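Continuing from the previous page...

OK, I double-checked the sequence for Subtilisin against my notes and this is the correct one:
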Amino acid sequence: MKLSTFALILPYLLATPAAAQCGPVIDLGGTCDLAALEGKLSTSTCTIEELFPGQDAASIASTVAELCEYDAPVQFVEIQGTYQRDHNFMDGGGAVADGEYGFEMDTARLKRFIDNSMDDSLISWPEYEQKEDYNPANGYGDNGYMTNFNIDRDAEKGSCQMNTVMCCFIESAKDALVDNTDVCRHDLSSSPHSNHVNSGWSVFTDDDPAHCVGFTWEDGAASDMYKGNALFYASMYQTVSKGYTGNVPGAPMCACVEQMPVVTEAACVTATGTALSYQLIVDAETGSVSATHSVTMTYGDCGGNDLKAQVKAVHADTVIATDIDEYLVGANNCDDTNAEYLNSEQLLVTSASNRFTNIDGAVEQGMTWRQIFGEGIWFLPPHLDPAEADEEMRTLMEACIPALGRHCLLLRKCPSCSSEPHRNIVYQRLTAFPAYQEGISTATTMDVPELFMNKWREPNNVMHVDYELYTSVSDALSKTNEWQKADYNTNSNNYGFPRNSGPTSHIGNNWNSYKWGGATAEHHGFYVEVPGDATSV
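Thanks. Re-ran it with the corrected sequence; updated structure tokens here:
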């Protein structure tokens, strides 16, 4: 997707020379695209060549696409006027939050939009010319989206995969803030564009007032069409109408839920449009063409659902419905989930039951095992040098090939995992590992420790082709009861082994991550079979 260079310019500058006799208004109905225009002109005396004289077919298609995407709706940036104002606002700062002339004056432009245009405007998702070069050059995709709201599925990093946005406010310029949630923690590495911190984490233990509200959408549904309106309603409207401002320290004020702090609960809002209609306007004097629309907007709550319930309802039977539990943990769950998170960050508890016994060097399921890394009770970091860590793991897993004709088994023991099949997972490699390259796996390279620790991905790691998963060593040795449901990261998210893979269906919250918290694998260890003691069972 190429961002229009006109995305920040007033609509009339998008005008295109045309034949005045084709107007003054061409009503396209509820769809704005080339097909709708061609269908409308097929019953008129005006041709598309007369409407856009001197342009070939490709140029006409591009012009219509520009008009429909950037001229017809209200661009998000038009509401405040500049990218910098929007960016600062969504991070919790700028004139509205910091104060320049007083709250009423600083929000006057927003209030005028609410009073005059909010109820009859289709608002686009925020895109900016300033991001058009930066994003592709830095792995955020070929787009112009604000980093807080990057919905480019193909972006290497920063992509909003859960179709859910949340705003969390901690201050009010008017009446007292309505406290509707507890803030648990925040992974600072998930929002570096807001906090300018590469890595780290914050845990919040005091019950300071906070108000979180958000929305979700389904691709291709009406909620997708009006998600720009929902974003305005969840963010700027809350500020103007209720005075809500301020961000949780270290986090954005508003962003895709993946970049937001972990909280207990959040309110839910919706934006619904009816009678949406697009029009092309032909200037009688100049013959220039512009685009506009009409719509009736309704804003409200989610019919009694909070944000978590709404996400589970809209995205039922998808990984989003389970992954939301990582960000909205439920009332009174901060202390327990924070304790799990701190353990995953290697702040170890002082004692453990026998079920957490380390099997490094011990016989387990008929063979001896060597631990390579682990978290929580079994904390063991890999080599600091990623290349050395990779070389060690490859060497250990390939040690069985000469005698047994297969890679050594890899076992993850995780008694803290909530899913019984995930408490012992055996990985059997079937194909040779590709060449080493630090970081995310590619079509020709792999960082083997990183694959298991943080970035469980599909390249060179396809179930039933490159590997099999089993729930026991005996199943692995007899090649029976292989797991059937694979799941992988599609971007740079730090979900490690085995993401949401399961024996017969996707099962969430049992992955490990050495960079993120939130799942139940806070106590686990990875072990490689020692070939000299390998036996059949």
